Every structure is written in structure tokens, then in C-alpha cells.
Amino acid sequence: MWIGTEYGLNRFDGKYFDVWTKAKDGLSSNEIDFLFEDQEGWIWAISTTDRFFSKSETDISLIHAVSGEVQLFQDKLGAHAPFTLSEILHFFSAPDQSLFFWTKDVLWKYESATGFSSQPCPDLVEPLSTLDGETIWGATENHIIQFDRNGHVLEQFPAQFNNKYKWLIPH
What we know:
The chain has 171 residues and is mostly beta strands.
């Protein structure tokens, strides 16, 4: 079990804790706000200055789940990444462990085997969430938009009034 804390990344094996920190292991930050595992067993430990993603500074450390090796995003993928960490507005993962990064007008999908692929998206006010791993939801000030996992628009729903949507809760 992996646990992100304000004091580093912890792995609990059911009996003992192993702890990774910035000083000891080279994490980009000790404050870990989000954790995702990719298809190759890398744990993406994401630190943000604003957990609600607005104008947030983002740091990403990757820790291999088996070896414990630590690499910073910019060292492992920075040369191949089509965006900088400061351009990320939102991120989430799908059940198949593909990762999604939303920038101003592009939805980036990361798969370990193929790297990054993109789908242009409307200039979104707020990327919201994925509910079932198959569809992704976002919002402009006057539409809720449903995308497939490749970022193609499936449907747009007009809002009843202008609003900046912040959260999506399945019901």
C-alpha cells in the first residue's frame, strides 16, 4: 500500500513502513497530494501548491514500485513531454492505469508503451473528472462536455445558467 503524506511517500507492506523523502531519496517534494500507478509499475507522486488545481505549481516524482528507484518527471519524461509541469490544470487516471493530463486546450493521455498522445479540446474552464474510466467530463462556462478516453467529444450538454463548474459527483 502506498500512502502520500505531508512528510514524504510511505509504502506499507502489511508489517513495515518504508519512507521516501526529498532529502533522503530525491523526491521533488515531501508533500504528496496525489498518487497514481502507471502501466509499468511507476508510482506518480504528485505535489501541488493548490489541491484544487487553479494556478497551481505541480511537481511529479516517479518511484518504481518494485525497485524503489526515484526519478523526477523532468528527468524521466521531460524531454518527451509535450507540456511543462506548470501547464497542467488537472490530472487523473483510468482503471487501465493510463494517465490523463489536462492543459489549457489539450487533453494528453499517457500510456507507458506509447507515451503521450493528444486530443484538442475546447478551452475548458474546469476539467472535472472521469466517472467510470471510459468517459471524461469537463465544463466550459455554458456547457458540460463528455469525452471518450481518447479525448473525442461525445456529447455537449448546455448549462442552465453560466457557471464555473468545480466538482462532479456521480449519482
